[in-house]
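hey m, so remember when u said the tokens were messed up on ur end? i reran from scratch. heres the input so u can diff it against urs
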Amino acid sequence: MLVSLSLNNLALIDAKEVSFDGRFNVITGETGAGKSLILDALSLCTGERADSGIVRHGHDEASVFGEFDVSNNDEVVAWFAKHERELGEDTLLIRRKISTQGRSKSWINGVPASISELKSLGQILVNIHSQHAGLELLKPQFIIDWLDKVGKLTSLKVATKNAYHAWQTIKKQADNTKSQSAQRADRMALLSAKLNDIEPLLSVNLHEIEHEYDELSNLEALMTEAMTAVNILDNHDEPSVVSLLGRAMRLCDHSADKSKLFGECGQLLALAQEHIMDAAAKLSDYAEQSLPDEERLHELDNLLSLAHRLSSKYHTPADELIHDANDWQAELDKLGAMPDNDTLDVQVKEAYKAYLMAANALDEARIAIAPDVCRQLQAQLSPLALPNAHCEFAFYPKDENSYNAHGKYDIALLFSANVGMPPQPLHKVASGGELSRIALVMQVMVTGDGKDNRPTLVFDEVDVGISGGTAQVVGELLRSLGEYQQLLAITHQAQVAAAAHRHILVYKNHGEQTTSDISIITGEYQIDELARMSGGVNITDATRAHVKSLLADITQD
């Protein structure tokens, strides 16, 4: 919801701030007073093109500042999340500067923003219906979405969209798989070959077999060294370590009763003698074992040669080959688990059938509800100076290759304002005023409870080509719609202006330099403005009485 707009050096406006009601706001003023400047400022806040000519004469730049209340607006929250920005409070602040050189700068909550960001956010915040700009309702997708909302077809619409995306996802996967099938087969063959190469090494520990090979290949020398060590430890011909230890132990035992130290050392020497005897026994067994197992030595030699060859082949250290093999196996398992072409073709056909079922249900529901929706639209257009309005929906089957998330048909809303004239697409036959009134009625027809996520609606001269009772009906419609959604409307009709919840007057001040001013008017000021709109230059008591009766009727409602 738009809370306020600040305009600085914008055309005829020097500096002005205007606040808005959350319901129906009307903007009035004499021709040329600058009513459209408020819409221009709002358009700049929502990313529309900036014209350097809008900068007030004698100044280098103009700026606009918009404040919006976005509490409970899920679409705005989602926009900020998508663009990785922080929303913070429930207030959204948009600022834009335009220089006389044509440069433009924008900020969202004080952080610089691009025009594309401003525009995408603006589409959530504001919907401007202007007879001088491309109306939203002229877009084919707007017509489709509107028909679905009025016809309460949201569930069928979502089902069709989901089915379409599921079909496209599996279809893309099938196409990719087919295009990559040859590469996939080659990759699987390569991985299998690598795993076959390395398979003999998967059950061994390279570090252990390297140590075993070194030992077996040097076994005879090691046995000789073991025997030499045994002789040193326990030699009967020369003093050995064991015999020398025995002599030291006897000396300690002899003096143990005289010194505690000798007793402790004797115990330590006995323990050392025990360990030495164990070592001598093991070395003796090692020295007396059989000669190397040539078959085992050959087996180890083959494994080590294989490891070094594969290390060179795959440019990987030998001790990392096992880790690589695990990665190769994981990749092979993944490729092997992928559906084959035949399986994917079946899945694509099933997904397509599911889409057709959902799309057919949606299209049939649209075709069934369309006549009743048109009757409702015609009934509400009739009192708006369109008594002979005729509307109908045209359904054009799409080529199968053009099926999309919105169904199998292109849909157009055809319109005729005159008896005997065939209905044609809106953009060909409807005038600006007619388009504005059609847009108004369409908005009324989709109005629901609450204001959350509803953009501010702006109608630029919705009352063109109408007067009297018709204008009063338009005013009543706008006021009723304002209870559900914030509205801004520029009007020349007193009956429309009288229905507003807030009346904003734009007027000129003629001093040294002409300026436009903006005021919120109530009471006698509002009566004077409504009287001017009703009676022109000469305002009579009868005109004022008529205006008071209009306001009284609105108050009673």
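this time it looks ok to me. The chain has 18 helices and 15 strands. if urs says something different then somethings off w ur setup not the seq
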